[in-house]
Amino acid sequence: MSEKIKFQIEFVIQSSPQMLYQYLATPSGLSEWFADDVNSRGEKFTFIWDGAEEDAKLLKKKSDDFVKFAWDESEDDSYFEMKIIVDEITKDVSLFITDFAEEDEVEEAKMLWTNQVGDLKQQLGSK
């Protein structure tokens, strides 16, 4: 098994940090853009795509700031994190994604995030 590569990608989102956080940290918010359906029991989140389920553990969260998950089946230290960054001067809001992928799948993973965040922006009425 090859080692996963950490990558980061940033998206400008026209939204308040509080509203954006609801789409990142709640099952109902995540099911609007990230997966077909999301269920949670405590720290365990079940993401459902096309009938297939993937479980992740909520590692950390800070209200209106970030959420960090690890997939249950990952046998390494990989995780995915969605962090809200607010520019101190312009007050622009960005969503900063940190994720891991196999070396030959990094570009594909970035495209997937770009598509998913496109759906998120649509839900938020952001450009």
TrEMBL record:
SUPFAM superfamilies listed in its UniProt record: Bet v1-like
- Coiled coil where? none
- Specify the species: Maribacter algarum
A Pfam family matched by this chain, by name?
START_2
Domain named START-like: residues: 1-125
Q: Per its UniProt record, what InterPro entries does this chain match?
A: START-like_dom_sf, START_2
The protein, known as: SRPBCC domain-containing protein
